[in-house]
Amino acid sequence: MNGYMGEILRIDLTHGKIMTIPTRDYEQWVGGHGMGSAIFFDLVKDKAIDGFDPANVITIMTSPLCGTLVSAGGGRTEVQGIGVQSYPIGWFTRSNFGGRFSTMLKQAGWDGIVIEGRADRPVWIDIRNHTVHIRECRSLSLWGTDTRTCQERIWEYVCGKGTFGDWLEPDGEAGGKTTQRPAVLTIGPAGENLSRMACLMHDAGNSSGQGGFGAVWGSKNLKAISVIGTGDIEIHNPKALLKARLRQTKTYAFDLDNRKRKPLATVFDAFPRPVTLFGSFPGSQRPTEGHRPQACVGCHSGCRGRYESGVGNEAHCAGTAFYSDASSLDIQRRSSDLLNRYGVNAFEAWRGLEYLRDLNKAGVLGPGEEIDFPLSFKNYGSYEFIEQFVKMLAYRNDGRGHTSQAGYDLGEGFVRAAERWGRLEGEKGDLKTGLLNFPYWGFPNHYDPRTELEWGYGSILGDRDINEHGFNTLFWDVLISRFTGTQPTATAEEVVNIYTDKMIPFQGDPLMMDYGTENMYSEHMAKLVAWHRHYTRFWKQTALLCDWRWPDFINPYAPRKVGSSGKSEQRFFKAVTGRRVTYRDGIELGRKIWNLDQAIWTLQGRHRDMVHFADYIYQVPYNGPSLMTSRKDGAWEYISLSGRCIDKGHFEEFKTRFYQLEGWNPETGYPTRSTLQSLNLGNVADELEHHGKLGTG
Ligand code: SF4
């Protein structure tokens, strides 16, 4: 099997056992999310357990494309298991991070890692090719360290005082040589203290942020996994891979010397998806010191930065926008580092800080106030303020080493904290007024369900803030054009034609791209959401193409602005594996994986009656900017979606349409036997039936 290493590492922390799973047992699921869901389904007998239960299984999976030259497809890693961040239930969920971990894992000979059980004392896992040890944290004093110190101590333990470029024989003379350091995935103090917003961190700025997996690791007494390998990854057709890569770079990649979107003057201007937001917009401060792009393994794009001073290195998207009220750019950049060092999820911290600020303005929260909060907002904007705040989130105390009930509550996540503070009750509850801007499953508002429909609907029909930017690119392109007085990359009609041409098997239905109020609950919109779920589950979360570059719909560098999706995905996949998985096959596999996930959520207790947004989404009009495509009087245009709500009754009708489209029971949302069997998931239907949760129909 080209692209695969042949084995998955399975570690039982409770019994200290190290085992293997042959990758071929899960080959039909290809890799990444597909394999992770299937392994979870097989190993976790009671799917209704809490995320902190030792029986929770965490999978950390690569794909056959990892470690290769596939454009923006070689460097991601998928993490899954029962999370602890979502509210009111910790759903089976996922996260994903970049860097060099998946490459190193494959070079060590593994396609993934499965973690089960709970160690009786803090441990870390030391992987050097096929030599694997579960080691106690005590000897290196790892427990209690921040994420960078932990990685540095492990590097020194494995490599001695050497650095990149020095030759190393990580598991002795027989195992081969490398000039690399181990790739380490670790938790910081936030994970150790079971903060539900704790991340897994790798290198300076790669975080697996959503889901609270840092806290799950903390509950398992797992501090870090270190991996170093010296092996090779077999490519089916290296020549074809190189050709595909060169074509992708030449025809579709961002060109620094020929920028198509000059107003978007980001540090590295990675249009169409700028992700380093330090000084992103005209008129704002930009780092002036020396810097260079930084990329995940094999990526042609390099969407993050490394700076001369080392401040804000590898910080990304929300991590760079967090604390945008900082009184200087330097403080903003240092605040990114704080999050990464303490292992805190940037998005939860960002929206949560806005909530606390508003409560403070309302005179409800602060020292000695109704919510007795140890942090004074008099210094809001300063470094001292944000350092204490991040420490509160990580240590669940007052941020200065003293116990604090409010600090402890914050570690439960902002929605649970608000619940503890009695802020969710009654007609003026904070999820009714929208003061607490967390619309889907207790996750912070990323893009608003009232306007960016595929994002909001996809999130509530799934398990988390989807964080998938395929259509969101359009939102930004049009919005920035409007702000800067320039033309969008394409007209609304061009956009609709190019996008919907690529949305197999629903292609040719332009109304899928009509975001107008008349169409927002229609079967066309149901198709858009379904397509997005299916494409993403396979091509981005299983094959592990990076969300920041895929799908490639509209591309200002391409001939006629038509991006490469539909052709490039399958070309890359074939070149690496030799296996013919067409673009359409991938989307169909994504549907299968999405169905398996829906079955797991059903076994966790999901019913259609639970699938609803926070109340403010139905009651309070959206008041931010948003421009998307809509058809009016027979012509396509970009329209403003500001000022609208979701109608609760009509959303219920939308859910019925969506469930029918997916072949699920529309009264319960449960998958049906006929749908599951058509996807070769008869065993999943059996388990649902055994638990009385198989949908009829
Ligand atoms: S686009 Fe950015 S996040 Fe994605 S693979 Fe490339 S460097 Fe990594």
Write the layout of secondary structure elements.
Layout: E1 7-12, E2 17-22, H1 32-43, E3 58-61, E4 77-82, E5 92-97, H2 101-107, E6 112-116, E7 123-128, E8 131-136, H3 147-159, E9 183-186, H4 189-192, E10 200-202, E11 206-208, H5 213-219, E12 222-228, H6 238-252, E13 291-294, E14 304-307, H7 318-321, H8 329-342, H9 346-361, E15 365-366, E16 371-372, H10 383-395, H11 405-410, H12 414-420, H13 430-433, H14 453-461, H15 472-484, H16 492-501, H17 523-540, H18 568-577, H19 583-604, H20 616-619, E17 627-632, E18 635-640, H21 648-662, H22 673-678, H23 682-690
Parallel strand pairs: 1-6, 7-12, 15-16
Antiparallel strand pairs: 1-2, 3-4, 3-6, 4-5, 7-8, 9-10, 9-12, 10-11, 13-14, 17-18
Helix pairs in contact: 1-19, 6-18, 8-10, 14-17, 17-19, 17-21
This protein binds iron/sulfur cluster (SF4).
Report on this model:
- The structure is a single chain.
- This protein has 697 residues and is of the alpha+beta class.
- It is built from 23 helices and 18 strands.
- It has a six-stranded mixed sheet, with helices on both faces. Strands 8-7-12-9-10-11 form a six-stranded mixed sheet, sandwiched between helices. The protein has a two-stranded antiparallel ribbon with strand order 13-14.
- Strand 17 and strand 18 (635-640) form a beta hairpin.
- The longest helix is centred in the C-terminal third of the chain and has 22 residues, at 583-604.
- Bound molecules: iron/sulfur cluster (SF4).
- Residues 72, 75, 98, 295-296, 299, 301-303, 546, 548-549 line the site of iron/sulfur cluster (SF4).
